[in-house]
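Example record

The entry below shows one chain as it appears in the dataset: sequence first, then structure tokens.
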Amino acid sequence: MPFAVASRLFTVQDSFWRAVEAQHKVSTMRLVGNILDNQQLLEAILEQSKPPVPEPAQDLHWLLFTPFRYRPNVPGSRFRAPDDPGVFYAARQCRTACAESGYWRWRFVQDSAGLHSLESHPMSLFAAEVHAQAVDLRLPPFKSRRKDWTHSDDYSVTQRFA
């Protein structure tokens, strides 16, 4: 880790929010005619087709290990290149997590030729306790590169930073 980053590390210990697809309704239930035994069988089959949960994340709740299980689409996400291990994205405020989710739904529509809107989609919000080392990109010396951190399409700088 470069000295400029390491010298500005601080400990974060707080609750962070994440927005995910709604968890109050099992989405596979309608595929099996609302028959619980069939739904459980389908879920078991689907589970076998998913990538393995990385060893360090196996003891976590599934809402917490899921981001580490899947690779992002090319070109990756802001702080994760396509071949990098998982990143847990979360927000300090509930409304920020909602805004982030809304932004990506909007981007999907903008990037999809012929798609003009999406149906509403229920979401679940949960908070997770985070205790980790961090840097604040809003503070010097990082804030001078704000355009790199917030670029709407080019994540190459932020992926290298991560």
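Notes for this example: The longest strand covers residues 10-21. The mean pLDDT is 91.
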